[in-house]
Amino acid sequence: MASTTIVPFGPQHPVLPEPIHLDLELDDERVVQALPSIGYVHRGLELLAERHDYLEMSQVAERICGICSFIHGQGYCQGVEHLMGLEVPPRAVYLRTIWAEISRIQSHLLWLGLSADAFGFESLFQHSWRIREMLVDIIEETTGGRVIFGVCKVGGIRKDVDDETLQRVGRRIREIEAAYEEVARVFREDPTVQKRTAGVGVLGAEDAYALGAVGPVLRGSGVVRDTRQLGYAAYGELDWEPVVETAGDCYARCEVRLREISQSFDLIAQCIDRMPEGKIDVSVKGKRPQGETMIRLEQPRGEVCYYLMAKGRKNLERFRVRTPTFANIAPLVQMLKGCELADVPVIVLTIDPCVSCNER
Amino acid sequence: MSFLKKSPWVLHYAATSCNGCDIELLACLTPLYDVERFGIVNTGNPKHADIFLVTGSVNEESRKVVENLYAQMPDPKVVVAIGACALSGGIFRDAYNVYGGIDQVLPVDVYVPGCAARPEAIIDGVVRALAILEERARERKTQRKLVTS
Ligand code: SF4
Looking at ligand 1, which residue's alpha carbon is closest to its atom 8? Predict the structure, then answer.
């Protein structure tokens, strides 16, 4: 009789900053299958859209997740603006793009740190977070918040950034980039990192596509798809190419994120160079959202979809979010099949699980 | 309080937080704030922990986990609630799956406000928790003396 053991993983686990639970069915040290169960962070946030008015709701939308907070706010605002037929001034669009890219970098750095911690490289964790802290300083200087920006509103942004500050940010970004390159070199060249990640948790391109993987998980498996290619915000006017790796293992996913950080530094510099002059918001007075829309954006973790429906009242009728982590759970279960128990934390972290997004 | 007799170890659990407070909490451990230089270590094991840091409010699912973790911690122990969510439910207060603050299920000793709570505030909260922890340890000692005498 084949005997397997069930080992619970989570909800509270040292490598997980957030609760998610996996039942790992083990045959000796090999994982036969993994069964995820969720619900520890479910708040019922979508229903709040029916209680708060549509302007206030942008604040709630930002708190879907504290790591990619800005992009959630941006997605919600873009959706409502679309329903109301508002044209956001170009300066606001560019500033939104800068903030979105800064949050992408800080999210990826955060992930690099946590994953270094997961494979036992404590000092690399500390260094990644040291650099992340420099970006948080820029966020604080330009928006006032550290993790929850609160600057995105329906019709534009709440706060302008003057040109002098922008230039200073541009110079600082270059310094941070230099500091980041040193840390990135460790990820690329260190044999420990290679040993723990190369060839681990392989996901082929077909599987990734069929299971609906998104973001770095999809691009790490060699599929070229980045929602920013749709050209929302200022991405249509900037020069960039999606980052793709083909190996499909944990190392490839790490490499995608490393290269995306460099790319985001470049995108920020481009935005600062081309920053248009002008207003930062349009008035929403007397207007109400009406109709139905679907908005897709690229989060650090992958594609996020928002569905909004409104009937011309002050609250939305329905607000629905499908977040990247949710899309990446099915690929994760696939990756975990047949891996070693000791690799489970590393593999779980490579999808960059954001549970509070996932469960809302 | 001028010095600490022991290195306090903390246990962190995200009940139903949005992550904002959790990353601020982790930021306390990293080079800019670096509480580890005071001997404060983030542990994953409730049996090693003295201070329980909870972020986010509770729902039915996380209530069981929070209670379980609290029960596993050895006495004396202190609970610190971090962020508006953990205090009262914060912005999610009206959401259908949220009970409200952590004090609905655990005795909370220190409340750290903010949405998200800033690392400085969190460190301040932990320092206050330390004073309470020492006080409790002292009480236990006197009690034990009374019992044995
Ligand atoms: S207090 Fe604010 S930042 Fe902290 S978990 Fe709650 S919503 Fe997120």
Answer: B18
